[in-house]
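Section: Multi-chain targets

For targets with more than one molecule, the full set of components is provided together so that the structure can be written out for the assembly as a whole rather than chain by chain. Components appear in the order listed by the source. The example entry contains two components.
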Amino acid sequence: MNTKKTLFDKVWDSHVVQHIENGPDVLFIDRHMVHEVTSPVAFLGIKNRNIPVMYPEKTFATADHNTPTINQHLPVEDPLSANQLRMLEENSNEFGISYWGLGHEKNGIVHVVGPEYGITQPGATIVCGDSHTSTHGAFGAIAFGIGTSEVEMVLATQCIMQTKPKSMRINVEGSLSKGVTPKDVALYIISQLTTSGATGYFVEYAGQVFRDMTMEGRMTVCNLSIEMGARGGMIAPDEKTFEYVKGREFTPSGAAWDKAMAYWESLPTEEGAEFDKEITFNASDIEPMITYGTNPGMGIGISNGIPQADAVEGGVATYRKSLQYMNFSEGDSMMGKPIDFVFLGSCTNGRIEDFRLFTSLIKGRQKAPNVTAWLVPGSHKVEKAIKDEGLLAILNEAGFELREPGCSACLAMNDDKVPAGKYAVSTSNRNFEGRQGPGSRTLLASPLVAAAAAVTGKVTDPRELMELETA
Amino acid sequence: MAYDKFNTLKSSAVPLPIENVDTDQIIPARFLKAIERKGFGDNLFRDWRYNGDGSEKKDFVLNNPTYSGKILVGGKNFGSGSSREHAAWAVYDYGFRCVVSSFFADIFRNNCLNIGVLPVQVSADFLDKILKAIEADPNATFEVSLPEQTITIDSSGESESFDINAYKKANLLNGFDDIDYLLNIQEDIREFASDRPL
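Its structure, encoded as tokens over all components, is:
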């Protein structure tokens, strides 16, 4: 019997409080992140049961899904959003949970602030009532999204009942070409696997591309794991991980750091450990990506045409319904398609590196007059860095404005909605029908592709603009 | 919260044979602003069901009086996307007790099981048979037996078995939820937590 263990096995197995025969594992949760949308009913549940939050110090609340991205110092206008935000504050206070609400210096998107303050750590189990909790897997944590009943479970008992998923390793070997970003790597993998290709699995990303990738790039990739159906994705912690984590507010220090490091260094998958499924891609096959349909798997290299229905796995009727919604046709080239909105932000691409990348292409150019651009930092910390590093000045010079942090147009629960029929190039994670507003049409892409679209007003290969720069 | 017991369900079914129905379609984000779990059924499939002015879209199946019942029959990869349990609440609140598909997204499946909606995963072939039976007779009935773990097309007697975790099955049959279980082992949890490295 193979006794070599994977990263996933090590973290999972060490968190099993109890294994139920013919049932799920009782999995202990180290960090529970809470936001205003999926938590009120869970808090109501524990109130009705008249029980406390078992480990309030392992629970962190932030407001992000509903929050406006302008005038955050004023009362929130939408009464329903205001009510949810108020409930989160009241519940946090009542149960002794740290709460980073609107106006708090640490406020931001839950999956951006977790890593920023060292709440996210290697080898931890992390859950949140949000599917993009998979982001935190970039640190070698088991992190996944849960439903509200499960939020209630974790509040009440710090545990969740889960059947252990199968494991998959996705290797991407070689190095990325110019203009190809972590977002493109993720969209490429999803386009190859489809949105259900990893359902039932927990994914480990391995290979040269991920070793070379920054922590923020790894977060982007792990963030999108859920879009291929995976429960989560993770990357083995290495020196880059430890360097990133070190010295942050909630990171252990002194003797606790040494103890933690001993654990973290023991985590990587052992040579010879077996996965239920293993797939390898070559980095050289990946170019800047863009989606053309209504799920994140409907993506292509930006210079390719939209596939014919009979070349696509799955139902032809569903495929054509998607294209009809987008008003695109089989065989169309995406290049040159006019667009109306650009959204830079979200838990996928709202970090400082994303703004650096976007600004690198914007510099010295002007926003296209037909484009409305929403540039939304993932947190106040990102917002501050954009200003401190001089990026804001460059953006302003090019005709762009910066908004205040939050989930914003990713899911359009606030006022940032793309109107019906309009096209948005978005760095967010989902292009579902109506995701960015009823009737809106979303093209998912990297910050570089978004920048190229923002200055040309149409779908443009960013490499063309990058070549101009070096010519 | 505890939920209805599920044993055997005999009902007609509503067909929605579309692949990759994501939870944003089942309940769009803008309807997630409630602080209590009620009223979500009105907004089930909101944007497929209603025009912008609030009038019904006649060609959407929920607006077609020909179809009714407590079973929703979806296409492959049903419930993908967001973890929002509100999607399962909307399905339940509308009146469905069972969703049938050839493939479910993980979190949606879990969410259904946690609120007492039974997700029944069948083979692509059997899904096709179910849809054909509804096409032949919109009032065709199906029997979903949780104790037997079978779904049967009443008109033809054809049957297929489905998988469900034994623990979850017992919970559904009895209307128990996971928190009841976890609260009973709280001391074990505390002991486990006491020597965590993090």
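The radius of gyration of chain A is 21 Å.
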